[in-house]
Amino acid sequence: MTDVLREPSSQLTSAGTMVQTSMSRSQVALLGLGLLLMLLLYVGLPGPPEQTSWLWGDPNVTILAGLTPGNSPIFYREVLPLHRARRVEVVLLHGKAFNSHTWEQLGTLQLLAQRGYRAVALDLPGFGNSAPSKEASTEAGRAELLEQVLRDLEVQNAVLVSPSLSGHYALPFLMRGHHQLHGFVPIAPTSTQNYTREQFWAVKTPTLILYGELDRILARESLRQLRHLPNHSVVKLRDAGHACYLHKPQDFHLVLLAFLDHLP
Ligand SMILES: *[C@@H]1O[C@H](CO)[C@@H](O)[C@H](O)[C@H]1NC(C)=O
Ligand SMILES: *[C@@H]1O[C@H](CO)[C@@H](O)[C@H](O)[C@H]1NC(C)=O
Ligand SMILES: *[C@@H]1O[C@H](CO)[C@@H](O)[C@H](O)[C@H]1NC(C)=O
């Protein structure tokens, strides 16, 4: 097979070979120029490049960061509404491979501020800048931890966005503290199988169930349970996997804003 393929190339005219060589030389030259430009840009830039957001970036939005007080401090990033303030406040949790910085990189925090929402993204214990917490080892502990964070940050009208692993926190909180939630946005969360249909039925919180079309495991498993929430709508993002907000950020943002804008 290899021999057969090699044969015609050995028959190339010398002109053909020359073209090939000069092309690769100019490619090398271009590459070198590119690297030099990158180096110059890098040296000339004021801040570390990972702080620039690459979608929906808005220089007018200031992202605040801090730690909650107490024994198990939780790191958070926060934006305040830019113009007209909406009533509900958005609390963003994260999946296993992510942290609060994800919502800054995606531009979600900036966009929410532009649209008049206060938004807070948390690093769950043991992720990003939050230390692991002993409290987080029990179901009750995780619910209380979230409740404490909402108290510390004075979030009154929370809409909780919970992708994947963060269901570990969000579901226990939902079951105990749903009267404190103005909205719930589960994105293929874990832990839904831990609760009965009756428990879901008792939660009246307006819910937007979001998932990626290509997520065949956790999305379906969680949807089977979340369907028992009495006031829910379901949106499936096309061509998106488990982390559908990363694969289709613009669709995700549109659907999230439509839900938030219509909350009572
Ligand atoms: C930032 O704010 C200024 C003044 O309000 C406004 O003119 C400008 O369009 C804003 N920039 C963005 C990207 O929204
Ligand atoms: C699910 O239930 C089991 C058994 O009660 C418990 O050990 C586990 O911690 C629960 N998981 C979550 C996420 O609450
Ligand atoms: C259901 O949720 C929607 C928001 O998605 C809200 O406008 C409506 O009032 C809720 N219905 C009930 C019966 O709570």
TrEMBL record:
Q: Which UniProt keywords apply?
A: Cytoplasm, Glycoprotein, Hydrolase, Membrane, Signal-anchor, Transmembrane, Transmembrane helix
Q: Where are the transmembrane segments?
A: 28-45
Q: Where is the AB hydrolase-1 domain?
A: 90-188
Please name the Pfam families in this protein's record.
Answer: Abhydrolase_6 (PF12697)
Q: Topology in the membrane?
A: Single-pass type II membrane protein
Ribonucleoprotein among keywords: no
Where, subcellularly, is it found? Answer: Cytoplasm; Membrane
GO CC: one term?
membrane
Molecular-function GO terms, alphabetical = hydrolase activity
Role this protein plays: Possible role in granule neuron development.
Family that this chain belongs to? Belongs to the AB hydrolase superfamily. ABHD14 family.
Q: What is this protein called?
A: Protein ABHD14A
Its gene name is ABHD14A
